[in-house]
Design goal:
heterodimer, A: 14 strands, B: alpha/beta, Pyruvate-ferredoxin Oxidoreductase, domain 3, 6 strands, about 20% strand, globular
Chain lengths: ~350, ~180
Amino acid sequence: MKKLMKGNEAVAEAAIRGGMRAFFGYPITPQNEIPEYLSRRLPEVGGVFIQAESEVSAINMVYGAAGSGVRAMTSSSSPGISLKQEGISYICGAELPCVIVNMVRGGPGLGGIQPAQSDYFQAVKGGGHGDYHMLVYGPHTVQEAVDLMYNAFDKADEYRLPVMILGDGMIGQIMEAVELPEMKDPATFPAKPWACDGKGVGKDRRVINSLYIEPDALEEVNHRLFDRYELLKERETMYEEYLTEDAETVIVAYGTVARIAKSAVNELRARGKKVGLFRPITLYPYPEKALNAVAKEDSVKRFVTIELSMGQMVEDVRLAVNGLKPVEFYGRTGGNVMTPDDIVSYIEKE
Amino acid sequence: MEEKIIIAGFGGQGVLSLGQFIAYSAIADGKEVTWLPSYGPEMRGGTSNCSVVVSDKQVASPIVARPDCLIAMNKPSLYKFVNRVKPGGTVIVNSSLIPDKVERDDVKVVYIDAQEIALEAGNARTANIVVLGAYMGISKLFPVETVKKTIEEKFSSKPKVIPANLKAFDLGYAVASK
């Protein structure tokens, strides 16, 4: 039975059903329904909910909890995610699994509270210091956010890295019907022989650490991390193509912009225009091979990247297209959101 | 079918919950739906609005630029959105708070004294349900019983207010069906 749920609450419930039992956060609009919901819901499943004294504190609690082997997460919105960057870098360096939700709002600075996609660079290119990446998902519906969140902890555990759900204010605030998956049983999760869970004694002493004074040791860690990122590229890349087969103009958009673009594509098709949509679902790893294959199609004349930013993902589109076809950019920012009509006008402008 | 609705008014007029009643009814009727609220500082004392899209198919854009129906609960909301309504669309005006007439001849306009009718139903706070009834009377979007069942379910924790809300719905429905 489908249930009408707000994006934030649905994501929170999906995390619990995916095995999350420890949440640490600090309030910020437009994601407050996540901690609000979890503060009620986590105690029901024997989990831990803590509203920390700051974002810095919250992410370091995630670091500690993840180190003990529990499925831990935090959520925030743009300025709060900036504050968490040091902790995220440490978690990556310590090779710990966790999930981070960013319901993005306009920036820079405190910015606004309306939807934006201007944290793309921060999410996929680093954000904190050092050589690292996260597995980053950009869901475009509440159902997709639920499905991705549900399995995010499995992926985080498998690759021992943070998974980020990169939403935006709209995904957080919208209500849609969702099918919630079954509750996963934490007893069935694979063992974590590296976790500081009190079981490592004597020779089996376990250490969670991100400090490597010896250059050779640190280089080895970085290579290990990047070997995993290669595996991510091979196995975890996700994208959707919508009416791209004969398209002359291919829109590239992710998250809620992609669904606005879908309406625009439908309208343009109804007017006889050959327009399609390429929608990355994983933002890291970026579906560059698939996008490059689209660029090689003779029918494709141009790409139009559409974002709620001044142009961030467009750089990855250009890397993937690699000069084969022109790549244009259309964006709104500051919390303003384009309508399907705006996109139709842009595409028809020629 | 795809019906796009914008509902707008003062914070506190039940604008967001009016949209939610439509959304819950849509689910009960087996339709796809999105409910997107405005959120932020404008919700305290200022205007508040939500966009609802009801469809047979998965809803692509939840952003409504040109609604099939505008429900305006206060004057600023009417003027903010009225010119966006599609030709042939519907504008429902809460005439308790809006003395103005809509100066468009290409849309259907229904004036409803929601406050007065809510008092008649026995609860001044049911004005939004009066308007919900009016909208259903005009659009026939869902079976009446589906919407009434939704009202009963959503007020199940406050059973005392259910009769007034059901009456408010019926009165609104009757006005619009005239």
